[in-house]
Every structure is written in structure tokens, then in C-alpha cells.
């Protein structure tokens, strides 16, 4: 994508666990919740997974902001491991009125294209629905993210409910 193209953001949702179209577990991929909260780990995951997709907005935050974000009860983090290496992660954020946002989701660069994304998203959606009180799961992605991201969300049963377009960034 050229620097001068507009950025489209897609907001997707799932309103029932019955809408989930799961993908079978990926052989060798283990997904584990990081039950002991450590903001430095979340920052590392954000940078590892987000670097190719220009996730930079949170990198300049001071430690205290990261700590307030990552170490609260309303945020849970899962990490995908393949042969002992971090293959990806996701964060779920519990919000008001039974909403759970997939706050961050993605694969580490070296694991993109190995067939892990569909199962990791299935795991994220199942985990969101397993969180007591969940009535809706939502996420947003944009045209700066991996080209397969939107299709993965749709393939798992999520539906676009809103799109926004920002003007092309200044060159």
C-alpha cells in the first residue's frame, strides 16, 4: 500500500457464540493465558507483532501508562507459542454492557503465513465468549494491517457493522 492511499477502518462484531465458525487447532501451536500481569510483556508483544503493521501509537507511552493499561482486571492476554517461540498474541478487554473487544491480535512476523491466524482468532473468540457476562465481541482492523486480517475476521463469523475512511496521509 502506498503512503498516499486513504486508510479504511473496519469495525466488526459477533453477537452470539453460535455465529463462531471455528478453525481447527494448528498442529504444534499452544495458546496460553498470561495469568500474571506484567506490562513490560504486553509492551513487548505489541512491538513484536505490530512493528510490520505500523503499530506505533502506544510505543512512546511511559511505563506508568502501560502498567495502568495492561495490569487491570478488565484486560486479559493470551500468547501463542510454536516450538517454544512466541508466534502471536491477543488481548481481550472487557467493557460496559457485556462488550468484549479484541484489543490487539496478531502473529509475530516470522510466523505469518503458517496457517496459525484462523485458529488463534478462533481461540480469541472462544475466550471472549467464555468470559462471564459477554453479550457481544468486537474488533477493528484497517487497511494498514495484514491484507488477510479482514477476511480472517469474516471467515470466523464476524460481521462488519461500520467503516470509516481517513484521508490519505500527507506525503
Blueprint (SSEs and pairs):
Elements (H helix, E strand, L loop, with lengths): L6 E8 L14 E5 L5 H12 L12 H8 L4 E8 L2 E10 L4 E9 L9 H14 L5 E7 L6 H7 L3 E8 L5
Parallel strand pairs: 5-6
Antiparallel strand pairs: 1-6, 1-7, 2-3, 3-4, 4-5
Helix pairs in contact: 1-2
Query: What is the fold-level CATH name, i.e. the topology?
Result: Aminopeptidase
Structural classification: alpha+beta
Provide the residue-averaged pLDDT: 94
Strand order of the largest sheet: 2-3-4-5-6-1-7
Description:
The protein is an alpha+beta fold and about 170 residues long. It has one domain: Gcn5-related N-acetyltransferase (GNAT) (Aminopeptidase, 3-Layer(aba) Sandwich), CATH 3.40.630.30. Helix content is about 25%, strand content about 30%. It contains 4 helices and 7 strands, in the order ββααβββαβαβ. The chain has helices at about 40-50, 65-70, 115-130, 150-155; strands spanning about 5-15, 30-35, 75-80, 85-95, 100-105, 135-140, 160-165. A 7-stranded mixed beta sheet has the order 2-3-4-5-6-1-7, sandwiched between helices. Helix 1 crosses helix 2. The longest helix has 14 residues, at about 115-130. It is globular and about 40 Å long. The model has no long low-confidence stretch (mean pLDDT about 95).
Short description:
The chain is of the alpha+beta class and 171 residues long.
Search tags:
single chain; alpha+beta; Aminopeptidase; seven-stranded mixed β-sheet; 4 helices; 7 strands; 24% helix
